[in-house]
Queue: 2 jobs
Job 1
Amino acid sequence: LKLVQAVPLPANVPADLIGRRADISAARWRVEAATGDVASARAQFYPNINLTAFVGLSSIGFDRLFKSGSEQYGAGPAIRLPIFDSGRLRANLRGKSADLDVAVESYNATLIDAVRDVADQISSLQSIARQQTEQGRAQESAESAYDVSVQRYKAGLGTYLVVLNAEANVLNQRRAATELKARALDTQVALIRSLGGGYAAETTRTAAAR
């Protein structure tokens, strides 16, 4: 059976995609329920930045979200990711401000966790891609060595044991290639899950196509 190929990682993974996640949606609804005024609560939005910018960062915070947004030209609003200012929203409430503070804190923590989750999966996919490149070279070398060993054996210049060893090396490399493809597929599924349902149509242009 032919192993299904992983879809290339898009060059742009907009932050708005994670707004589809069930945990973020639930946290957002709790804040809006606490305010009772959805229009007021959604006065501002986080920038719709490329989440690949967070790959490799040791820590991710809200200051990093805004900084990345200012550094990415043309990053519009992430309409699924409103910014909740508990201080501003609290001014419109009469009591139950503690409930609002808890809801906002939970939403913010869930958002940061989601960004970190996506960045980790993207980092893993990039790492696997590098390993696949290296493994591809190793497999080409093994295939070439096998061909040479067969030619030498047929010419009476080598032993069959050398052929068997070269063949075993080829099989090991093919097995490694299959394992890396499987890991890439598993990680891509994890990335799709962390994004709340896959890539948007406009993100399908890959870095390789640049």
Job 2
Amino acid sequence: MELRTLRYFIAVVREGSITAAAKSLHVTQPTLSRQLAALEVELGHALYQRNRQGIELTEQGVILRRYAESILALADKAEEEIALPTHSIAGKVHIAAGETQAMELIARAMERTQAEYPGIAFEIYSGTSADLMDNFVRGFYDFFLECELRSHVDMHTMKLPHLDEWGLLVRRDDPLANLAAVTAAELVGHPLISSRQGVKVGVLGQWLGELADKMDVRATYNLPLNAKFLVRQGLGAAFTYRGLFEANAMSDLAFVPLSPALESTQGIVWRKTLPTRQAQAFLDKLREVCAEEPSSTRADS
């Protein structure tokens, strides 16, 4: 398979028809059709079917789209880095980040990096730790801001001087809002909302212990911002970190901490292969920012 052919295929998927794709690629429709037909012959499977709306991918076409997008993204990233002048400190730094206030440290380091190296730009990707880690391992990101930092034998890690406090985001009229803190036992029978990882893993699973099986989880979320709307509609109380939402006396939402208190350690992860010059410049600034924090307990591995 050639990269050009994969780009043709992705263009057809994106545009929804061969005619529109040919126009966007500035090639003739017969040329594009021949390229796609040759790709199907090479793979031994039909990749799409025509219908009144345009095209619909077959099962094999869906699989190829997933891999083609990954291959093309990595190829573009490689071309971008190779094209930089030999001694230039410029280009993009790709950072995957879970939702945490530790992002403030990352943002501070980004600002300092750009102040010294105006040619550096940043791309931030948000999502669950599981989804982000998968793409991080495959090489899409330079760094991964991991919530609940774990040990990674084949990677470098740096603990950030920040702890996130767990609690529940609730509606102001929820009985839980009147509590100074909530225990696991008090959550039994109460409708809850959790991250997609669920309530049986990580530090939250340890905190709930045997009561995790008794939690009434009505919905799960990918990003905490979506959980806010579920809470507002009365679907339940959402497990989250303090400070991610406006939850004060003037808000219709309240944050209730857990009892006993529960905190998560956050950290940055990067591969042991030599980082790009721009990635190293950012890492140096991040170390600088962390060293200035009063409660800094930074430890590289």
